[in-house]
Protein 1
Amino acid sequence: MTEPKYMKTIEAINDLSKPIHPIGANRLIPRLAVQPLGGRGVSGSEVLQKYVDDILSGKIIAGKMVIKSCERHNHMKTQEDIYFDADTADDFLAFSKTLIVSDSHHLYGSPFILLPWQMFVVGSMLCWRWKQDNGVVFKSGFGELSRGQGKSALVALIGVYLALRWPKTEVVMLANKKEQANIALSSAMNFLTEQPSQSYETTQVYSELRIADNGSSIKAIASALKSMDGMRARWYTLDEGHTYRDDIFQKVVSALPKSRDSQSFSISTAGGVEDGGLESIYYQQRRVAVDCLDNYNKLRTIFSYLANIDDDDAIEDEKNWLKSSPSLGHIISIQDYKRAFEGYESTGRLADWERYHCCRFSKLSTSWIEDAILDDVECDLNIEDFFGKPAFIGVDLSKSMDISSVAVMVWSDGIPHLFCEHWVPTRRTKYRSHAAKIEDWRKIPNINIVDTKTIDYDSIGEYLLYIMKNFKVKDESVGIDALGGVKFVTQNWEQDLKIPIIGIPQTITMLGPALITLETLIREQQIKIRRDPCLRHCINSVGLIEGVNGDRRPCKNTSSGQIDPVIATLQALIVAIEHGAMKKPSYQTADQINI
């Protein structure tokens, strides 16, 4: 039987990571000679370059983002205004070989092994320098890996190295909670005080390590904006950045120019819906980590190592796990990973597996209504076939970047028929979840792609007049957000165009029953929906919040993308219920209906 490719990858990782015994010298961190391995000396820069070569040749399995990062590394070697500081790369690797694993890990007491992917991250961040002033090229870095890959140990090691290598250096470990920041601080303390080769006199004062030999310090801080004032650190680690609620990224970036060598490095697993989804602070900042791999000349000071499985990868395929878990086979065995996957699968937690172990934003647990169910109610409908029938309308307007939608609900043969019209802006939407779909949507008649800076509210008003002309629209039959930010538009519609608007607060009490009613209509196939890829995309993006009595409503902050058409649809349904087109729901909470 042929050996699986991923096992060869694991062998390649372990082969490059055999301990190398250093020779000391008289300095705080000795410049260490590297002993021959396999008939030749192995340096840090050689380990790094072999990792790059193995990634690009396919010997080591990696995701698209890591491959791009390695391609960028080779491109940087051709640039005349920067150079790679091989001396520091060799020094860091040699220093790591003086250490043992000293935290609570099954490898406790073993020699610390700097894995090739870790050498790539360290070498990239610390060793690329400008020829003009020897300053670091990468001022900010982003790393994403699955759980259990040694992220905290790596950033602790970098912090310790910098604190020892440069006197009076300040290293800051940031996390959303101090308990998380203290994990890396504890690893740093172990690296400083529990080593057989040399320990350094270190005092811990609360969440700060003070190194007596040279006056450097390592601090753990909870990432509140007020705690960042006045900092001038050499190195900032932003641990599990996906959990941040304040924009700590910008606060740190603004502090970096204070020193030629100041750097920040965010290291995290993938974020989730509860963190704000793809519109969260973390994913807004993470965008530059994607962009810098597509345009080498635009974002030269940003480093990116995003070890995710790719979008089309199956999460149950074990060969894909190496893409997000480059330490697999060393820190954790493939057998343990298989058993862990079986546990997640058997307990219905595959969304957690996708996020934490495949390091990919998961929609498995956020899907409100599955595509297969939508398939049963979507069909080709011609709105003109329903002219003259009673219609109820919902409108959701955006100011600029969001989608604006009008939902028209028409009753025929006892069931509602839903028609949506959308206005989708293209400006400043590059990172929106629907950005890649816009060009395909241009071909759809009911999707209006807006290339101007603002939404053309006049065209939406004209569409509403078109609906009023061709359908029976009663007074107060156009539902719209009562507290929306474009009141001047709706006031003009009401006064000048005589559109019969009624304000609908977007509260749980108002939207909750309508949400369950709509879901019931769809699941029981008691509604027909005009085929609409924009509406489907937004239904797939819906994230829900729940009130104290069990009512649920869609929430933009917990959704993975735009949900404006869904809000418009709910408002149309609320208006229809209020006008007696269907019975009011006899339930008020989700647990009273079997969904």
Protein 2
Amino acid sequence: MNQAVNMTRLGETSKFFDAFVQIGPRRLKHPAHSWRLEDVLAEMEYCSISGALVASTMSVEYDLMHANRELSESLQGHRNLFAIWNVMPHHTRECLEPESLLRMLREAQVPAVTIHPRSNGWDALGHHAEELFEALGKAGVPVMVPATEFSSWQECATFLERYPALQVILLGVRWGEQRYLLPLLEQHRNLHFTLESYQANYGIEELVEEGLEERLIFASHAPMMAIGAARAYVDYAEVPMSVRRKIAGGNLFRLLQGLGPSGEVDNGDEDELMAAARRGLPLPLPVVDMHMHILEEGMNGGGGISRMFRGGPRDTFHLLKRLGCEAGGFMSWNGTVGADSAGGNPCVARALDVSTGAFWGLATVDPVHYSQEELAVMIPEIYADRRFIGMKPYVTYGVEYDDPAYDIWWRYGNERSFYAGIHRVRDDFREVENLARKYPNVRWVIYHCGSNFQVADGAIACMKEFSNVYAELTLTSVTSGVVEYLVEHAGADRILYGSDLPMRDPRPQLGWVVFSRLPVSVKRQILSSNARRVIAPCLQYLPAEVRSRFSRWEEQ
């Protein structure tokens, strides 16, 4: 790994060409969520993105050729933006027949198209679609397809087999789909995919090792998702700089046959955190990650849909060091998602055994497999290991957290001023409200509050009522603007950074905060000082060597 770091020539930056942003009205949009072209342009400049392919929501939700033309007209005068048109077979007289369509694409300088067979109600494998796809493949026009537009991964595989000359870019592939995606990449050289939702732990490094670097495409899906989150995944990739430049924009430039932005955008007014992240350097502050899982050493998977490449302690601590993360709370995966608390807590302890930073553990207690009498014995035994200062229940046990079955644990934590990490069982915040009221000495950290604006609204209301409730951000959605929204309405001192590693790679989650439109002082609070305040009441229980590291930070 050290060799890989050297190969990146830390301190350099890459020219970014965004493969997919989408403007226009959206169904069920929250009033605070951006949607206009000017929103995207401002964010591109802020995050130093040099160009983008732009799609329109209305080309899917309305007459596609009308919306396609409107999109191209709206982009006139923006030499770094290129329209993506939505297309379909011509038989229903909604889209042009292939020859006329290709001519219009050339005239309008549209370098790529999208298809939405499920959303627009047609069959991508139907014989009526062959003429369209064969023409696009012969002309070298890439076809971008949201992964959700295939009814199954087998349909996707059949599509790739049927049209080997067609350059296909899959959009929105998620980390939980690795076991479908990776074999297809090996089997079909015409398959490429964008990284905005992939966020797999060490995902870029693994695919580059497998010789698939030319299939990886940078995209943000702004303004739905945060551009800074997408670029940090690439900026911090431990690959040669030449490879990083391919992923950032070179691969897309090649697929578009040389069409792309001629200039490079560089935000000359970025703060020190943004500057460090863009260069793949550790952030110049002690980052505290409030949401981390861990696997046993050498493991690459956590069961279910969760493949976590290099998810053990050695590679986890290596990656944290690269980012400047020096502290945080670990919880198990098998003890939470796997509902095996007796196996999960020792897994966390073994990870802490090899830690050299200021890390601690969150234990999981199980009121389902064990009786209250057994828990009365088990809970003190777990926390006899002074490195555990957190409480982490989970939804897989099937018991709401304010159920009396958990009271024995909450009382123990309340007496010692522990904190709890809460992945809500219910859609509302009632559990947290009941617990915050009943156990005031516990800091209740609600996980995933940045998932969308609607969840953020619920968390804000809860935090306004209870001073011992905090909002942690992490989720794959990396919703654009929601970090700023939470700060505005709940206060800068109540928001916490977390990554959910190694289920997700921490780099996009970090970039989400680093490239937010917040003063650098507030970013520092979210990334570090707020977390230290959450654990301060129970800091006394940690071993002396861990406490000493926090003391040194306070003196800086």
